[in-house]
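Hi support team,

I've been running sequence recovery on a batch of backbones for a student project. Most finish fine, but this one hangs at about 90% for roughly twenty minutes before it completes. I'm not sure whether the input is malformed or the queue is just slow. I've pasted the structure tokens below so you can try to reproduce it. Let me know if you need the job ID as well.

Thanks,
M.K.
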């Protein structure tokens, strides 16, 4: 299995995953041209995609879903509530390209097993995903205001997890965002802070996780060095040693090969 976070952040999200013959995008929250260029940079022709999976209807996750689906006739997978809600932003899809799943029920794209699980965010029915193929597994968990017990269960036992480290709480509080938006981000339906990400990874370390990628960083309320050092310190304070990487907002991060 191959996993590459192409773009991750409050300005746009898109990850690529390949397993066997399945080639999928999770979200397409930037301009179609940017995503096409990022895919070609890792030697993937956009026309060879098998699916676009959507986490939720916010524009930083769906901006190019309609464009790419229509251009390459790629099926789009989402739950029914998300389909209804995102229609305004993505336009009409070919009927043959609408694949509705039920949150919590796993399904296959080729040989790739996909499980969408419920997260806590201010969208109609937002989800995270775990993927498994031939004994290897990857998860994506961003846009969740809190880490509930069921979320720990959903992402336990993975080889690699992309986890949100959205903001530094002090930067957010002292920054220029309007009060209502600050409240929204800090709420149970907002985003995980760097500190929350560190504590989450510590608990997942105890459950066996050894490799994580931090993502969905806010452009305004975070920076890459601070996110990394905050999480590293929390892990170090408990003697947990985990391989950590960071997904960039504006350019592809590494390609991870899981074999
Ligand atoms: Zn969102
Ligand atoms: Zn988002």
């Amino acid at each position: 299995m191959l996993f590459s976070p192409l773009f991750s952040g409050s300005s746009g999200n898109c990850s690529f995953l390949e397993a066997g013959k399945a080639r999928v995008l999770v979200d397409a929250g930037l301009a179609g041209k940017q995503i096409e260029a990022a895919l070609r940079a890792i030697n993937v022709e956009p026309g060879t995609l098998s699916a676009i999976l959507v986490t939720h209807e916010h524009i930083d996750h769906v901006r190019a879903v309609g464009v790419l689906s229509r251009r390459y006739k790629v099926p789009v997978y989402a739950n029914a509530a998300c389909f209804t809600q995102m229609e305004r932003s993505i336009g009409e899809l070919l009927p043959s390209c609408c694949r509705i799943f039920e949150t919590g029920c796993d399904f296959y794209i080729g040989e790739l097993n996909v499980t969408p699980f419920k997260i806590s965010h201010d969208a109609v029915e937002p989800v995270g995903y775990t993927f498994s193929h031939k004994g290897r597994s990857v998860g994506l968990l961003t846009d969740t205001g809190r880490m509930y017990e069921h979320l720990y269960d959903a992402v336990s036992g993975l080889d690699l997890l992309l986890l949100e480290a959205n903001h530094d709480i002090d930067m957010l509080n002292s920054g220029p965002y309007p009060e209502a938006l600050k409240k929204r981000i800090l709420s149970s339906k907002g985003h995980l802070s760097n500190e929350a990400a560190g504590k989450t990874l510590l608990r997942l370390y105890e459950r066996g996780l050894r490799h994580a990628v931090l993502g969905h960083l806010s452009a305004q309320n975070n920076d890459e060095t601070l996110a990394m050092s905050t999480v590293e310190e929390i892990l170090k304070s408990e003697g947990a040693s985990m391989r950590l990487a960071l997904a960039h907002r504006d350019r592809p991060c590494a390609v991870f090969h899981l074999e």
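--
Follow-up from support: It reproduced on our side and the slowdown came from queue contention, not your input. The longest strand covers residues 112-118. No action needed from you.
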